[in-house]
Amino acid sequence: MRMITGILNLICFALLLLKYPARIYHWDELNDRLQLLHKTISGLVCLTIGLHIGTILPYIGKVPADVPVLGGLIVIVYLLLVTLCHTMKDHEQKMHWHRIMSVCLLAVIVGHVVCAVI
């Protein structure tokens, strides 16, 4: 179950990341659909993060220490991303920080998955 929740989380995050190339490459239909689903998918990320944490807690001592540390960092960066996006008024500045936090989140998620698999 713990891997399923992690994979669901990864799929949701990948759908959120797909929004950027859809906009850049003018895949208008996909971009419009992803825009409509953006908040829903973000909510699913929050839900799957909670489920993932709940299902992995019994196994936390059986994995290398960097896995839960990176997992905690994912939560912190995600909360920072959401907080910044809901508190900033300037749209351009908001999107600038949204993209920076998304890249940071991607890097930490890749590290978390690599450490968990190895």
3D structure, described in words:
The chain has four helices and no strands. Helix 1 (2-24) runs antiparallel to helix 2 and helix 3 (66-87) runs antiparallel to helix 4. It is mainly α and 118 residues long. The model has no long low-confidence stretch (mean pLDDT 94). It folds into two domains: 1-62; 64-118. The protein has helices spanning 2-24, 28-56, 66-87, 91-117.
Question: What's a concise summary of this model?
Answer:
It is built from four helices and no strands. The chain has 118 residues and is mostly helical.
Note the total helix count.
Answer: 4
Strand content: under 5%
Which runs of at least 5 residues are low in confidence (pLDDT < 50)? none
Task: Please write the string of helix (H) and strand (E) elements.
Answer: HHHH
Which features does this protein show?
118 residues, mainly alpha
Task: Walk me through the topology.
Elements: H1 2-24, H2 28-56, H3 66-87, H4 91-117
Helix pairs in contact: 1-2, 3-4
